[in-house]
# Entry
Amino acid sequence: MVTNPAQSAERPFVLETGVGHVNRELGVIIAPSCAGINFMIALFLATIAGLSAVGQTLILP
# Structure
C-alpha cells in the first residue's frame, strides 16, 4: 500500500526540502505553490464574474 500519493514503486518521487517532490528520472518537480496568491487570483476572478453577471441583470432597457 502506498502511504504517500507522491510515492510509487515504478516512479518514486523524493521529497527535497525547499523544492518539493522530485523525480530525477522523469525530470519532474512537484513544487509547493504559493497558495495565497492563487487564492487571491481565483477570488478576484470569481468576484469579477459575479459582478458582471449581476450587472447584466440590472441593466434597464
